Amino acid sequence: MNAHILESYVVDNPEQAKAxxxxxxxxxxxxxTEPASATEVAKAINETPQRVNYHLKTLEKVGLVKQVGTRxxxxxxxxxxxAVAKSFxxxxxxxxxxxxxxxxxxxxxxxHLITISERIRKDALSLLxxxxxxxxxxxxxxxxxxxxxxxxxxxxFLNEYVKLVKQLVEKYQVNExxxxxxxxxxxxxxxxxxxxxxxxxx
Length: 202
Prior knowledge:
This protein is of the alpha+beta class. The chain has helices spanning 14-20, 23-30, 38-45, 49-61, 98-131, 151-172; strands at 6-11, 65-73, 76-83, 85-90. The protein has two domains: 1-139, Orthogonal Bundle (Arc Repressor Mutant, subunit A); 140-202, no CATH class.
């Protein structure tokens, strides 16, 4: 099995850059620091294997993931994929301005926010059905608003936010296999111009 992976990869191909900025493909490639099948990736990100397989083919076509082996599962042969690197850096040779790259990143983040919202809705409906069968469903949600008028304040808040969440996850994470898995999905975004019917930001 050819399971070699680079620590970082400089993206200088426009097709690779566009593929990498797709939020779902970004999630998929983030799961491929170790060899995995479309089924395993789909389970990890709570997507359908068919949809993951479609995006894997696109990532493979542009050279961001590669096939590194196969294995037999029951009567099927699963293809194992691996990302070409653990992290990706946009090259200046792409010819994109800094502002253009930042706009693309913003668009990707917003698209990812929509994906997360759809996933939470789908999971919540499924869990509601379980709760109607008298199954206990531990869950929690937080909604709040914060005023961050300056860019430096926003950056400082986001950096500390990510750091604290990472520390919290590492504190309570266990390495043993378990059926008690919980999804943690967090988001921060500015209030749309004109306001909305929902003032929450997280």
